[in-house]
Amino acid sequence: MGSPPQAEAKKQHTGLVLGVLGASQFLMTLDSSVMNVSMATVAADVGTTITGIQTAITLYTLVMATLMITGGKVGSILGRRRAFAIGLIVYACGSTVTSLAPNLGVLLLGWSLLEGMGAALIMPAIVALVAANFPPERRAAAYGLIAAAGAVAVAAGPLIGGAVTTYASWRYVFAGEAVIVVIILLLLRHIADVAPHPLKLDLVGSALSVVGLGLVVFGVLRSGDWGWVIATPGTPTVFGGSPVIWLIVVGSLVTYLFIRWQSHLERTGGEPLLDPKMLRNSQLVGGLSMFFAQFTVQAGVFFCVPLFLSVALGLSAVETGLRVFPLSIALLVAAGGIPRIWPHANPRRVVRFGLLTMTAGILVLVAGLSPAADASVVAIPMVLMGLGLGSLSSQLGAVTVSAVPDSQSAEVGGLQNTATNLGASLGTALVGSVLIATLTSAAISGVQNNPDIPDSVKSQATTEWASGVPFISTDQLTTALDEAGVDQATATQIIDVNDDARIDALRSALAVAALISIAALFFTGRLPRTAPGQPARPKAAPPAAEPETEPA
Predict the structure, then answer these.
(1) What stretch of H or E contains 435?
(2) Could you give the 3-state DSSP secondary structure of residue 242?
């Protein structure tokens, strides 16, 4: 006997909603991964340098991270679906401008500014629209698949970007995004909305959050070039140290003022941008901390693995994408399969399993790395990483949203996406700085301790590498040594040293990612043991007291 027509129609409707929201999440994440693999071609097309494209990537992340909280509140004021539609229109305009960009200035306007502003409206609205369109017992699966769509975009971005850039033009990626946005807008009427709340936007709080988060994120993003505390040679200094530490300090102070301002508005009957009680919600804070940890580890791994495949092994962008793609498959299986097979699974237990699986994947990769390793060494680690990320994705969205009333789901979306952007920024910066520091130390030490390298070459190499050894391929190093007039025997020794130092650097950087994943286990106690939408487990009753007897 088949399903009732109403049930079948409902299933198709929710499937369409999931497809629309998942496609939107995919688009929001695709840009950066495509741009990362196409930097050299984009730089040549718009007449700039790699540094110029890195500036565009930095600004895009900065705009998104700083506007997420404000974007969540605007979604509450305008209505979730309207804010979602406005964000899509702004995003499509940015994609169109980017696809036509003749120079860096137009690229910054289209991609970094307009697309970043559009994403700040879209991403919090996605979280709220899932809450409005799925009952509590189905939200874990919905959030898991939508989070998986974003993670798949990170993994598939090099494959898509590499193929389109190689065989056509990177501009088609952004033009195609605008077309997809039009299709999403046509399907938007099938998504249930939540009525807007007639609130006033806290402009002071918005300014404080933008400045505070902006300074912190910008500092983290610049740490690779400027150094965390001690300024790298040739960079500006503030009070004798790196500007990075002062940007983070000042940004943290401004963020603290933002929180105090929100508490003041709450006490005086105002309308805060962010309800301070949300930051005292143990379950919400636990979920946000896990989002932060997940994206810190994910960004760190996705920084290292493509470097190993494309630089150390010399694979093309398409080949690199194919090697990473098993992660996407495993992630989708875990994110969609866990809520379907175990709908009442213990979220705390699933998240701990995910963190342990991610850690195992990283450690297997570290153990397999060697100068003689080939691309097959990443196969099992990518599957384990995908299963771990999918496990976290299957739970965290539902955990954070279920911690507050549905009316605050847009604000939760803003906080959630702020945590993920901060985590991604920190993961890339921290792992990147550890990689370069280890590479520099290992390369200088290897050259200095090699008796077959002449003293004159040792002295010159140490001087040139003092500010940091670049992570370059063997072919690039061979060409540089030939141009420098280094004899063949000495060049061979330096290449061997670089091969070993490169692997040591990747191992150290990945070990940092594993350490973050393990550290996150200590904060899982804030997560609930009961799946959202299910009744809480009753606490064990205390043992009955012995009845007192009256003395005779």
Answers:
(1) helix 409-448
(2) coil
pLDDT digits (tens, 9 = 90+) for 466-512: 666 777 778 878 887 887 777 888 888 888 888 888 899 999 999 99
Given a contact cutoff of 8 angstroms between Cβ atoms, the answer to whether 243 and 232 are in contact is no
What is the per-residue burial (b if ≥16 Cβ within 10 Å, else e) of 21-31? bbbbbbbbbbb
* pLDDT tens figures, 281-297: 999 999 999 999 999 99
- CA-nearest of 178, 150, 409, 404 to 286 is 404
Distance between CA atoms of residues 165 and 344, nearest Å:
44
Alpha helices by DSSP H, listed for 449-523, are: 455-464, 474-483, 488-521
Q: Which of 317, 356, 312 is nearest to 473 (CA)?
A: 312
Contact 207, 261 (CB under 8 A): no
d(CA 232, CA 464): 13
Is the dihedral angle over the CA atoms 147, 506, 48, 232 positive or is it negative?
positive
Nearest CA to 181 out of 71, 13, 31 is that of: 31
Cβ 426 vs Cβ 296: under 8 Å: yes
Burial of 276 (0-12, 13-18, 19+ CB in 10 A): middle
Stretch (H or E) spanning 380: helix 379-402
- List C-alpha distances in Å: 140 to 135, 143, 352: 10, 5, 16
Q: In angstroms, rounded to a whole number, what is the distance separating the alpha carbons of residues 511 and 501?
A: 15
Q: What is the largest CA-CA distance in the chain?
A: 108
d(CA 277, CA 265) in angstroms, rounded, equals 12
